[in-house]
Amino acid sequence: MIYKVCAFYQFAALPDYRELREPLRAFCDDLSLKGSLLLAQEGINGTIAGAPEAIDAFAHELAHGDMFGGRLNNLELKCSTAEAMPFGRLKVRLKKEIVTLGDAAADPTRQVGTYVEAAEWNALIASPDTLVLDTRNAFEVAMGTFEGAVDPRIKSFGQFKEFAAEKLDPAKHRRIAMFCTGGIRCEKASAHLLARGFAEVYHLKGGILKYLEQVPEAQSRWRGECFVFDERVALGHGLRERGLREQELGHARDE
């Protein structure tokens, strides 16, 4: 069996997120889905795997079903495949943030940077007056990144605030193009920079995964593999599994 793996998120007001946990868990159990889901007042984030038809039913329920009442009608979805189930079980967790930054001013429902489609990304990052910024953790960057990208050398995304305060200057860095695995960390990071007075902040829509899915390898400015937070470990162009063993990484998974 070929499993369908779906990474997704949306920032949306979910004041009833605590009450949504058990209905969401039950719905996933009925579809025999496994993976990790995060619910918070600011939205939903997760990666889930199962039979292709089950994943399709899950995505339809989130976007159009009664459970969320149309509040997740703008989901960012990226789907790939796996030859083996990449998750051992289903986890549905409640969080303060669906991606932890710890800055109340960074509210993606109010403002985010300018989205850049995968097809337009190469031209943007080739510009000499653009600072290209990888917002992921250091061990992810070590596995692969875009040519010329700055590595903030952070152990967890929550440290991005300190990096920005120490290394980024609105007067000096007038145009910033950032990227992450699926796009969610850039939503928070771009909102944070805009709140601090940065004028031009761009981010790769759909993240590295969308880029690897859509941009031909011959035209790619990506080098290496893209770490993913499941048992596949890393993906390459066309979202193909790289088959790396987790013990080869020598790093803890810390998003």
| CATH topology-level name of the largest domain | Oxidized Rhodanese, domain 1
Structural class: alpha/beta
Q: CATH superfamily membership of the largest domain, which one? A: Rhodanese-like domain
Helix and strand succession? EHEEHEEEHEHEHEHEHEEE
How much helicity do the residues have? 25-40%
DSSP strand tally: 13
Number of helices: 7
Number of domains: 2
What is the overall pLDDT average? 91
Q: Major sheet: order of its strands?
A: 4-1-3-2-5
Largest sheet: 5 strands, mixed
The radius of gyration is 18 Å
Poorly predicted sequence stretches spanning 5 or more consecutive residues? 244-255
Give the strand content. 15-25%
Span of the ends, CA to CA: 29 Å
Q: Which shape, going by the Cα principal axes?
A: globular
CATH architecture of the largest domain: 3-Layer(aba) Sandwich
Which CATH class of the largest domain applies here? Alpha Beta
Organism: Bradyrhizobium rifense
Function: Catalyzes oxygen-dependent 5-hydroxyuridine (ho5U) modification at position 34 in tRNAs.
InterPro entries: Rhodanese-like_dom, Rhodanese-like_dom_sf, TrhO, TRHO_N
Family: Belongs to the TrhO family.
